[in-house]
Amino acid sequence: MRIRKMMLALALSFAAGHAAAQTAVQNAVQNYPNKPLRLVVPFAAGGPVDTISRPFAEKLSEQLGQPVVIDYIPGAGTLIGSDNIAKSAPDGYSLLVLTVDILILQSSHPKLPFDVFRDFAPVGVTSRGTIALVVDPKLPIRNIPEFVAYAKANPGKLSFGSTGVGGSLHLGAEMLKIQANIDMTHVPYKGVAPALADIMGGHLSWIFSSMAGALPLARSGKVRAIAVASLNRNPLLPDVPTIAESGYPGFEVAVINGIIVPAKTPRPIINHLSQAMIKLLATQDIKERFAKSGVDAASNTPEEFATMIRNEVDKWGKVVKAINFVQKD
Question: Based on the number of CB atoms within 10 Å of its own CB, is 311 exposed (0-12), middle (13-18) or buried (19 or more)?
């Protein structure tokens, strides 16, 4: 009898504790947000991700009625900042700016301290940007067929730049190499600007570049844009075809930014953030400010963003496997 009473007391105590915990969670959700939020940018301040994160944080603050403070945590190809959020409390006050680089790590880093699917919950995409393939205008290349023909006639002669080993611009070029069956030399840079400078100086053959970096130089004839890596043509370069329509169906390398939070963040909080983001991304002000950075404001639901993330991980995982690429810290 005594044992049964002890077990009943323990059960009642557990139930009371569980009910108290549920009440605490419900109160937190109902009062959300009631303090400043932290938006982790896994890059150094001043870069292209920063230029769109600042207006986004400002407008999100207006929507939520609480400050959104940017926390720059660069290093290890976005690994350090991403891991910080993976290990943060799932309370809706710690957000991470997701880029394609984080999704590539899922396949390329053998000792990744987090799992994109297990440790994060998607909130929504914030922007998409077009990537242009630009070449040295002195080369006899004006379109993708000529590009591939020249590369095959001159194996290893074409050199391509990127903004770092293992990033989407690097692996995007590797994907093109695989699909076109061509040989080219990779030259990593610390940014697009020095790579574009080397193209203009005749020291580099080509690069995948953001529209913000490529457009003014292409219009002035200092570089030549021969294709865009999106599935649809860009209205800023209407006469420049896509790689997909130039003989490589489905080929796409896009600049994608979004917001993810720690796993186990309560769904009502995720929905609240999602709705706030959809509203702010539809404003004319944010569209104009994003356009100055060469990207388009975009939004979707957490479910749609989850599908987008899985598709990107699958795509880049195939490239990583094909070239046997291993990301190092």
Answer: exposed
261 in any annotated domain: yes
pLDDT tens readout for residues 277-301: 999 999 999 999 999 888 999 999 9
CB atoms within 10 A of CB 73: 18
Same domain? For 236 and 260 the reply is no
75 compared with 284, residue with greater pLDDT: 284
Sign of dihedral through CA atoms 105, 178, 314, 246? positive
Query: Which two structure tokens, joined as six digits, stand for 73?
Result: 């945590």
**Using CA of residue 212, residue 218, residue 220, residue 222, what is the dihedral sign?**
positive
For residue 206, the enclosing domain spans 130-246
pTM of the model: 0.87
- Angle separating helix axes 267-281 and 284-291, nearest 10 degrees: 80
pLDDT (average), residues 245-271: 96
Task: Tell me which of 246, 279, 306 is where a domain ends.
Answer: 246
Residue 329 is predicted with a pLDDT of 62
- Sign of torsion over alpha carbons 268, 312, 59, 41: positive
Q: What is the mean pLDDT of the chain?
A: 92
Residue 283 burial (10 A CB sphere; 0-12, 13-18, 19+): middle
As a residue count, the chain comes to: 329
Per-residue pLDDT for 17 more than 70?
no
21: confidence class by pLDDT, cuts 50, 70, 90: very low
d(CA 44, CA 73): 7
Tokens of 134: 């630009």
Instruction: Write 13-16 long-range contacts (CB < 8 A, 24+).
Output: none
Quick check: helix, strand or coil at residue 241?
Answer: coil
**Final residue of a structural domain among 215, 246, 277:** 246
CA distances from 23 to 32, 33, 267, 268, 274 (A): 14, 17, 15, 14, 24
